[in-house]
Amino acid sequence: MTTDVTPPAFLDVRDLRVHFPTDDGVVKAVDGLSFTLERGKRLGIVGESGSGKSVTSLSIMGLHKARAAKISGEIWLGGQELVSAGSEQVRKLRGRTMAMIFQDPLSAMHPYYSVGQQIVEAYRLHHDVSKRDARTRAVQLLDRVGIPQAASRFDDYPHHFSGGMRQRAMIAMALSCNPELLIADEPTTALDVTVQAQILDLIRDLQAEFNSAVIIITHDLGVVAELADDILVMYGGRAIETGSAASVFETPQHPYTWGLLGSLPRWDRERSDRLMPIPGSPPSLINVPAGCAFHPRCAYDELTDGLATTVRPELRAVGTNGHRVACHLSDERRRQIFDDEIRPKL
Amino acid sequence: MRSRRVAAAAVIAVSTLALAACGGGSSGGSSSSGGGSDVGGVHNVSDVTGGTIRYANSGDWDSLDPADTYYSYSWNFARLYSRALVMFKSAPGKDGATLVPDLAESLGKPSDDAKTWTYTLRQGVKFEDGTPVTSKDVKYAVERSLDKTTFPNGPTYFNDFLDLQGYTSPYADSDPNKLGLKAIDTPDDRTIVFHLKQPFSGFDYFAQMPSTAPVPVAKDTGSKYKEHVVSTGPYMFDTNDLGKSFTMKRNPNWDQATDPNRKPLPDRIEVALNVNSDDIDNRLQSGDLDVAIEGTGVGPAAQGKVLADQTLKANTDSAISARLWYTSINSDVAPLDNIHCRKAVEYAADKTGYQRAYGGATGGEIATNLLPPVIPGAEKFDTYPTPGNAGDAAKAKDELAQCGQPNGFTTGISYRAERPKEKATAEALQQSLAKVGINLEVKPYPLGDYAKLYAGKPDFAKANSLGLNVFGWAADWPDGYGFLAQMVDSRAIRASGGNTNFGVKDPEVDAMLDKALVTTDTTAREKIWVDIDKKVMDDAYILPGIWSKGLLYRPPNLTNVFITDGYQMFDYLALGTTRK
Amino acid sequence: MAIYIVRRLVAAVILLLIVTAAVFAIFFLVPRLAGATPEDLASRYVGKTADAEQIHVIAVKLGFTDPIWVQYGRFLKGLVAGADYSTGPTTVHCPAPCFGYSFLTQNPVLPDLLDRLPVTLSLAAGAALIWVVAGVATGVVSALRPGSIFDRAAMGVALAGVSLPIFFTGLLSLAVFSYALGITAPGGSYTPIEDNPFLWAYDLLLPWITLAFLYAAGYARLTRAGMLDTMGEDFIRTARAKGLPERTVVVKHGLRSALTPILTIFGLDLGLLLGGAILTESTYSLPGIGKYSVDAVVNNDLPKVLGVVMVGSIFIILANLVVDLCYAIVDPRVRYS
């Protein structure tokens, strides 16, 4: 299937495609995505809704709708390939080797079971311990994620918790088995701004403590700026830019990334000085535009001699620090546009 | 008013609802062809004793208390555990409608004026506990049956005919022996004398009612007596779960020597109450049940199945009952006050449609006069013959012309809304009468108040132009008096409603009824009933529809099965079973 | 919680008063407004040859000549203080709560009801167990494979179950299983559970299945819809993300939520079961409350009807109370105070 013979990274996604055949056509939610992530590293996957970032994370977890989806490519995790593995095999990795926290902690927790019970359930599933020991462990975890009086909150139900506390509890549940990979899908989107920062701090601290690999999935570059070592920008089911967080923030290459950066709030500038938001809307995943998927929304597509509308750009290196971009504009022109038009407004 | 009513027609059926419910649903009738079985005789003749006969009732019993029961199946069945002074003979066909002495040695001996009736009891008859039966026990039984507060269900013939002198109930009796009623004398333990306040030639019919079966005063618990009726018959109650079931076993103190009328075969009798009627039909055919006790025949669902299967069909008897489905022609409503217009209706009606409404030949036989053939002395005649009973438009138009309505007229036809067969009747008549220009407006009324507030209330019927009223009538026992009095006595019509005579008004008929009451000669009396029948038909007050029939299924294990004209169903006294 | 229960019970008593008053009104006020006299009413409870005088006596005895509120007051008094009734030779005391005496059979109603209650309860309990288990299981399997052959077949049968009347399925199954094949008890069979539990179950098997069929169908459809909804919930994804086996996900996380609305329906159905019991008991000739109520209504026997209405209302009220309390246990978000 692949000719790549280099030993896989800890998490190594190679040419992942997740397609959903529907009556209206094939939804190409993820269409040829590759990336790697090492232990102890934090990767931020950024994109609008419908860019394929959530499907990517669910595919890694094996939680995509298996009956409805056609999946191809490879997902290597700790030396084990998951796409071709049996569902039972992947299930056993879930919760233990890889864990996930979700956007809305209220709907993500079962309303009829106490918070403690739900943590205990996850822990005991992978550890042969008594209920009492599991409870002790759960209380420790709740305490660790910053739930005050953890022991007495153990029997509370999700609806007794505030949003931030629920997300802390979700994190406690996800970390209960010391997973090597933690995927956080929009972990702060549903939370107040002040709480957002606390949760991000918590994730960072815990990641350091447990030395897990972390994928943060978000539409918010601010979150990535806080947390990520590396950044992967997705658009129309594909990666369009990837590199270290520093490099991407300092010298963003793709016009789409410029747009994302431009929409970040800044306390020190007037709104009128800023870039206009990206016009148009994300592409339909059934009929992805030919050529560069972003070209209908791109202000510079006419500078590509028509390539943008005909040829799909592949990721290619910009410089030597691993920063890569999928864009038909030449590096020079991009630098020029960035320096002249974009940077002053960022 | 009251005395006149008593004189004319003591039996006032105030409630049609009660009539419909109590008339036995459709008391079975004698015998006629049907099902291909030999009906006149006895099936499976046998004198083998033992076994259990299983009965089922689709409803509840009104009461097992002899003073408080008014279903003909119940009277049929009561002979198993009680002995009245007189009873219908346990015999097939017409013989079953004859009266024979039971507790008494002979039928009643009337005084010349038919106002005093004397009976002498047989010797040696005992209650189930061994106590000898005396005439005082019979008197007490009749006394208590007078108490309609305690026993509201039973018939009221004794209340109406005995010279009560204000007596109401033994429970309010100052006599220490509770025998204070002056209308009944018991000169000795074997003699009982009834004093009537007016002559009544058919008193033996009263004496066959279960209320003359003796009741020991010491065991009488009033309305609770039905929980354990003290037996004088061949069977006594074993268990009794009111409203659900009861069982009977042989009564050791019943002595065959005292009883020429009974040959009890089974050792045991089981009766289930409140059983789904369709299920009863199924169980009869599957052998899980022996007798559908109400004797009304299989239901419409099972009827088709039975008739289609030769084996099953061979095990059926078609019983014609003492019930007439008819349509009254109301002379209060113009132009039906004119006899020719009434005759036009008689001629125009298609009776085959009437029969179809009741399920065809299985449901009944086309009636051309009032008295059902099972009534002793009844004659079949046809005052208004039409080809194939399908109506004669020419004769009808001729009558219309004589009536001064050559183009016909419009009037209403009422029926009981809850009864699909009566609806079908009304519609069939509507069709056939329309052919001669008589237009009927169909008007349904609720069953419960049909006689009380609507068709049976003269001013309502007149105001609403109810010229035709679909109805039905059955006799308490096969006798002209019980059948005709309520239908044709004009003096029984009350302005307040609740009538069962919807419009027969002929002083001659009233006079004939009075004459019959004092005619003690049976043959002469029966002749009067036929004369009344003919007169009413001549007057064209009633359009007879059909004499009701029931298709009775007879499981092969039953022995001595026959239909008696007395109750127009199987004779329960005679039945035996081969099933042990 | 205790206060909540007390409040519900007080409301229940008021409801009973209203319901019985309504029954009284239907029986007495409506016919009176329509022009019927007390004697017209009384004529339902006498033999067919009774004359006006005799009917009047019965009307007085049954109390029809009194104003309706006096009659209703007498009924209430009997409930709290008991009542005396004449059997003819003696007077019998009917101890509180006295539901009155049947107009027609002159039996006290309460013992009749208590006598028949076990039959109906047996029928209801067995049928409810069957329909819940069968219905929910079918619904779950259908929901996990929507559009599969099983799903379509099950939903087809379910549709038939909802549409076919009990007296049809009942008589058909009696004809086939009891009479043709002889493997189930014939109609009218009932053995009290304390006499012989096996015979009890054997006798009731067919009525149970017939009655359950009607409801199981609805429950299968409800469960299917509920499960389809629930299995799309976020917390199901969470449960899977934990690595729980699919079976645990479906039963512990999915079904538990999907069952909550079914519990509500179950409470209502259990209360209204008397309706189904009427048909089932009539079809199978079981001597239960349902059959009793049919006979009561057919015979216009008011005290019996009142008794049945009381029992039925109490049934509904209790069933709903129990369900509401269960709800609080099942769904921790619900708390009564």
From TrEMBL, chain A:
Signal peptide: none
Domain named ABC transporter: residues: 13-261
Positions of transmembrane segments: none
Entry keywords, A to Z: ATP-binding, Cell membrane, Membrane, Nucleotide-binding, Transport
Claim: Lipoprotein is one of the keywords in the record: no
Location of this chain's protein in the cell: Cell membrane
Annotated CDD domains: ABC_NikE_OppD_transporters
Recorded GO MF terms: ATP binding
Similarity field: Belongs to the ABC transporter superfamily.
NCBIfam families: oligo_HPY
Full protein name: ABC transporter ATP-binding protein
TrEMBL record, chain C:
Presence of keyword NADP: no
Species assigned in the record: Pseudonocardia xinjiangensis
Protein name: ABC transporter permease
Transport among keywords: yes
UniProt keyword annotations, A-Z: Cell membrane, Membrane, Transmembrane, Transmembrane helix, Transport
Lineage summary: Bacteria, Bacillati, Actinomycetota, Actinomycetes, Pseudonocardiales
Transmembrane segments: 9-30, 121-144, 156-179, 199-217, 262-285, 305-330
Entries under Pfam families matching the protein: BPD_transp_1, BPD_transp_1_N
InterPro entries attached to this UniProt entry: BPD_transp_1_N, MetI-like, MetI-like_sf
Main localization, broad class: membrane
Bilayer disposition of the protein: Multi-pass membrane protein
